[in-house]
Design a protein that fits this description.
By secondary structure, the protein is an alpha/beta fold. The protein has three domains: 117 residues, Nucleotidyltransferase, domain 5 (2-Layer Sandwich), CATH 3.30.420; 145 residues, Nucleotidyltransferase, domain 5 (2-Layer Sandwich), CATH 3.30.420.40; 48 residues, no CATH class. It has nine helices and 13 strands. The strands form three sheets. It has a five-stranded mixed beta sheet with strand order 3-2-1-4-5, with helices on both faces. A five-stranded mixed beta sheet has the order 8-7-6-9-10. Strands 11-12-13 form a three-stranded antiparallel beta sheet. A hairpin with a 5-residue loop joins strand 2 and strand 3. Helix 5 packs across helix 7 and helix 7 crosses helix 8. The chain is globular, with a radius of gyration of 21 Å.
C-alpha cells in the first residue's frame, strides 16, 4: 500500500493539487482554472487526482491553503489549514537549498517572502492592483491576439528597450497601441511589458524589502521566461525556478501535513467529487460592514462559508447557523 499526502491550494484564479509520497517527492499534481466556481473546480481536481492514484493508496494526511482554504478544508475534511505565505515558504525551502527570497506571482495576486535560516522573517502581498500580477500579461496577450505561451517565447527575442507606461493596465494598453502605431517591433513591445510588470512588482510588493539570493520564483507566471529574464536584469541576480512552480502552495501544504500527521486522517475521500452542494448567501450582521457571505450546504447541512472582509465566517465550524 502506498502512503501519500495531499495538498490543496484553491485560489481565485486557479486550483492546484499535489500528492507527495513518504519521501516528500511529488507523485502527481494538477493545475486547473477556478473560474469563479471554487467548489466545482475542487471537485473536478479531486476526481482527476483520485483516478490517477492506485486503488489501494492510503491518504495519510490532507492540508488546504489558498484564499478558499477554509472552504476546501471543510469539503474534503482537511487535517490542516494553513495560509499561503507559510505553504509557499515551506515548499521553497525544500526545493531551493538556502533560499532567502521567494517571489510568487499568480494570476491576481503576488507575494514576496523573506526567509532567513529557513524561517519566514518578512513578507508582503498585493491583492489590489493587477499591474504586478499575471492578469496584466493575460490582458495584453489577448489584445495582441497571442497565447500566453507565444507571448513568453517572443519576450525572449525582444532586444530594444521600448518604454511602456504600466502603472495601470488601461494606460499600458493605450501606450502599447501607440508603440505599435509608431512601428516598434512587437517582440520589443512584449518584452517591455514583461519589464513593466517586474518594475510594478518590485516597486509595490518589493518596496523596502531586503532581496537576497538565492531567489526562488514561484507561481504560474514563473513559466514565462520573459519575466524571469526581466527579473534577473532588474535585480542583477540569478532567478531560480523550481520544479512545479505553479503548484508550490499545494506542495507546501502537503509537506506541512506530512511533518505533523494525525493518528487518522479526516479526509472524506475522493467521493466528495460526486457530492451535490448547494450555494446560497446571506448578509452578516455582526458589524456595520454587512458583508455578503456565501454559504455552501450538503444535504441541508452547512459545510462552509466565505466572502467576508474578515475570516469570522470562514473559520465557523460546519453545521453552525447564521447570526
Amino acid at each position: 500500500m502506498m502512503e501519500v499526502y495531499l495538498g490543496i491550494d484553491v485560489g481565485s484564479v486557479s486550483t492546484k493539487l499535489a500528492v507527495l509520497d513518504n519521501m516528500a517527492e511529488v507523485i502527481t499534481s494538477l493545475y486547473l482554472p477556478t473560474g469563479g466556481r471554487p467548489v466545482a473546480a475542487l471537485q473536478e481536481g479531486l476526481g482527476k487526482i483520485g483516478r490517477e492514484l492506485p486503488p489501494d493508496t492510503d491518504i495519510k494526511g490532507v492540508a488546504a491553503t489558498g484564499s478558499a482554504r477554509y472552504l476546501a478544508g471543510a469539503i474534503v475534511g482537511a487535517d490542516l489549514v494553513k495560509n499561503e505565505i507559510t505553504c509557499q515558504a515551506v515548499a521553497a525551502v525544500k526545493a531551493v537549498p538556502g533560499v532567502r527570497t521567494v517571489i510568487e506571482i499568480g494570476g491576481q495576486d503576488s507575494k514576496l517572502i523573506i526567509i532567513r535560516d529557513g524561517m519566514v522573517m518578512d513578507f508582503a502581498m498585493n491583492t489590489v492592483c493587477a499591474a504586478g500580477t499575471g492578469s496584466f500579461l493575460d490582458h495584453q496577450a489577448a489584445r495582441l491576439r497571442l497565447s500566453i505561451e507565444e507571448l513568453s517565447r517572443l519576450a525572449l527575442l525582444g532586444r530594444d528597450k521600448v518604454h511602456v507606461s504600466g502603472r495601470c493596465t488601461v494606460f499600458a494598453e493605450s501606450d502599447m497601441i501607440h508603440k505599435q502605431q509608431m512601428g516598434h517591433d512587437v517582440k520589443d513591445i512584449i518584452y517591455s511589458l514583461c519589464r513593466t510588470l517586474v518594475r510594478n512588482y518590485l516597486s509595490d510588493v518589493g518596496a523596502g524589502k531586503d532581496i537576497q539570493p538565492p531567489v526562488a520564483f514561484q507561481g504560474g507566471v514563473a513559466f514565462n521566461r520573459g519575466i524571469v529574464r526581466a527579473l534577473e536584469e532588474e535585480l542583477k541576480l540569478e532567478i531560480i525556478v523550481p520544479p512545479n512552480p505553479e503548484v508550490m502552495g499545494a506542495i507546501g501544504a502537503a509537506l506541512l501535513v506530512k511533518e505533523s500527521p494525525a493518528a487518522a486522517s479526516r479526509f472524506r475521500g475522493f467521493g466528495v467529487s460526486e457530492a451535490a452542494y448547494h450555494t446560497s448567501s446571506f448578509e452578516c450582521r455582526s458589524c456595520p460592514t454587512a458583508c455578503e457571505i456565501v454559504k455552501i450546504s450538503e444535504n441541508g447541512r452547512m459545510v462552509a462559508c466565505w466572502g467576508g472582509q474578515c475570516d469570522m465566517w470562514e473559520a465557523v465550524p460546519a453545521g453552525k447557523g447564521e447570526k
